[in-house]
Write a structure and sequence with these properties.
Number of strands of chain B: 0
Strand content of chain A: under 5%
Strand order of the largest sheet of chain A: 1-2
Radius of gyration of chain A: 21 Å
Helix content of chain B: over 70%
Largest interface: A-B, 51 and 52 residues
Number of helices of chain B: 7
Shape of chain A: globular
Distance between the termini of chain B: 49 Å
Shape of chain B: globular
Number of helices of chain A: 18
Radius of gyration of chain B: 17 Å
Largest sheet of chain B: none
Largest sheet of chain A: 2 strands, antiparallel
Helix content of chain A: over 70%
Structural class of chain A: mainly alpha
Distance between the termini of chain A: 56 Å
Strand content of chain B: under 5%
Oligomer: heterodimer
Order of helices and strands of chain A: HEEHHHHHHHHHHHHHHHHH
Amino acid sequence: MTDAAIDRVNRVAAFVVAVPAGALAVTAMVRSEPLTGSWYVVDRAAGVFLLVVAVVGLLSALASPSSLAGSGRGFFGTRRPRVSYYVALYLFWATLLTIPVVDNLAVAWLLIEATTAASALLVASSGRRSALEAGWKYLVLTTLGLAVALLGIVALYATIGGGSLASLDWASIRAAGPGLDRDAALFALVLILAGLATKIGWAPVHNWLPDAHSEAPPPVSALLSAALLPTVMLVAWRVQLALAPATGGAASGLFLAFGLASLAIAVPFLWQALPLKRLLAYSSLEHMGILALGMGFVHPLATAGVVLHVAGHALAKSLGFYAAIPVLRAEPSFSSQPARGLAARSPAAAAAVGVSLGSLSGLPPSPLFFSELLILLGGLAAGEPAVVIVAAVLLALGFLGLVHALIEGVVSDREPRLRRSHRSERRLGSLTIAVTVALLALSATAYALPDTELVRDLMEALA
Amino acid sequence: MSAAPMWALIGLGFGIVVVRRRTTAIALVAAQSLLLGALAVAEAADARTGLAIAAGALIARAIVLPLLLLRVVRVTREPRRVVERHALARLVGAVLAVVVAAPLVPAFGLERAGAGNAAFALVVLGIVIAAVRGPVVLQAVGFLVAENGVYLAGLAVAGGLPGAIELGLLFDLLVVLAVAAAFGSKIHEEFGSGDTGLLRGLRD
């Protein structure tokens, strides 16, 4: 089978996977009751994350042929490295699609661990020395972190009194909450959240994130940043909700601490002249920090902000990584140098990077401007003014840093035009238009979102 | 389960912190897994399904995974032994980490007194091993030590963990170690050594 035939199979498979997943997600978001089964629950929150994973996965699969063009044997070193890449990609994507809907903490952990194996191979798939380093660091840190989380799950299971696998269903954990020993429940909570934090990439256990996201192929970077991190965060959020009766506000405090630490670590790097993908990776650290704050405030406004932020971040971040594909193909040195003067070199890439960085910085009318505003207002309403002030200052600094990078990257210097194909320019241009429209549509929902059933469902679970 | 096996497990973990040879470290973690597996089989002796799962876990943890790591050692012969200094400092650091961490564990309903502390100590030891040892294979041994700590906690839960979870954990561990073995071979092929001290190219 030729590479072109393999790519055609990939394109068909991408729609075969994405369309049912997307349909399920939309169904869940419009139904008044969740879809439930013996091992799954597809509620509105799961629907949002499922839709994000489906869309980002589809786009990453469709962008993969361009990213793979001209690549050698790489890590897989087999006669069919392209087949190995797609197998790992679809295993990763399939696991990501399942995580939001499982109704059990232990099963969710198993699936998260499974994503580590597939994604570590994808991070290192180019076979470059830097990619091997990034993939190994990612594998070591996240495996050990998840071992800590697993110990917390065993501790929780023992504290509940064991019984069966169903004891670790979300509803069962919540029902058992009032009767749990508080110290034991708190111990389990801390271990689980600390362990999941390594996978989410919250500071101070984020060391793998900038390397893995910058060294992975762009479609994989998009999946890591826009789909994996928020999906694991959903599991952490569900743990917070499920253990709230037993631990009170302890989880909120942990989320706020992780959020501020992530913002504080990320913002200085947004001011540095970094290669595009590395800049986007540190931006992911910043945005996961924002989401942690939103989850920690436990207020309808902040919850609405989190939902909007997950969707907006996914679109904007993915576009930024996809824009890197034609740029890196034409100029491989861009992987280690800051991008400059893209407007003169590749107008389509400049437009895509402009929309991506502009949205990620929170520049209105980006949905991320509205989501960050909702989260901060939620924080004030929740009685956390000190946290909100510190976060606002950090967000303002981060905004300025990304705008600076945007100006330097897009309009600075007159550089020679990149060797590029008109077809890839057209595709990137079409994608940029589609993402821009989707971002504006998301912005339009910001006003009404706090009063929706989705946010009310999430808040009822916290009550 | 008495205290003696738990101390033996921790002692084997400390040994892995200081040994020089990769094969010795693999032998120590195999012995750790064998001890845990034997405890699991003894606990499950009167339940057929549990016995099958415990026996499978013993074979996988004590035989299959160490053999996988030994295979990596065989195909990644080091041109020179990876230089790791300060074995005593590593050991002191590991002891301090365990002494500080283990008492922090509250009672959380395990059937054996001290099992929670021992389990947490092993997880901490696994992290320390991965942090302070240079060779790729030894960092992978750190994964196994940490997972052995979780397995010990699972053994001490009243009624044990559900069989589906035990099998799932075992499968995940096999997959992750297989991926780690692939990385070990690839790193050695690319860098000429399995020393992770050479993986320092990515900096800001």
